[in-house]
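Table 4 source record.
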Amino acid sequence: MPPKLTGLFLYPVKSLGGISVPSASLDALGLFGDRRFLVIDESGRFLTQRTLPRMALVATALDATHLTLSISSSPLLPLAPAASLRIPRASDPSAPLRTVSVWQSENLLAEDCGEPAATFLSDFLGARCRLVRIGPAFHRPIPPQKLPPVPGSQLSTLDPQLSTSPSQVTFADAYPLLVIGESTLADLNDRLLARGAAALPMDRFRPNLVIAGAPAFAEDMWTRFRVGGTAVFRAGGPCARCTITTTDQATGERDGPEPLRTLATYRRDAADPTDVNFGQNLIHETKSGSLTVGDAVLPL
């Protein structure tokens, strides 16, 4: 039996809570609804759980027209009152444009989501911030140096859009999607348990696609693969992990050095030993279509 897609995850707001979905559609930027919103500081710089781990405690939900942010009590904040806020997903031509940055991507134009969202997040996170949204003015091509070469024999099979315009990315760190195999996590958890540490859930690594039925780290070897009948993905390179993996997504608490300490024993990047890798970044060659949990996964 071929490997299968066993999990699909969206992160509507970068670094806030994610959601598991049974199916998702693709567009020019990746999975529709994934990382289309961003929390920024007063200078327009992106904010993440790296510096504000309690961002994990802001849950997200999507319906056809709105993003809902909600906060409830947790072991970290046992007295936090339940609260929620709905924000339109659609672009607003009258919204002020803000200049924002994500890593080396500077001068990105995004729509401000207004004072209620800014107040809601600032009050909870304890830092002055704003929420912005992707609109028509947003343009963020993947830097050419981050695009892996495409063998000439495969050029004829690429989605036509890939050859006519640069591949685009949302507010994600660098690439449109991330894939991790269940066996890859199981391998890590075996190593953690052997060292006396606790096994970790998949949400520590915030993948978009989860795959079962392949050996551990098989996703590292797949230059290209197809999910279902038509959706084709290309490897963007290994994902270097950060302190977000040490943050319990249910409590917002840091768990110490794991899993980074264990990953450093066997997953150091050969080109940059300061990086430890887990999961494979992806570029979607197919700019439309849909994915469904249970779809077959076929390496090409």
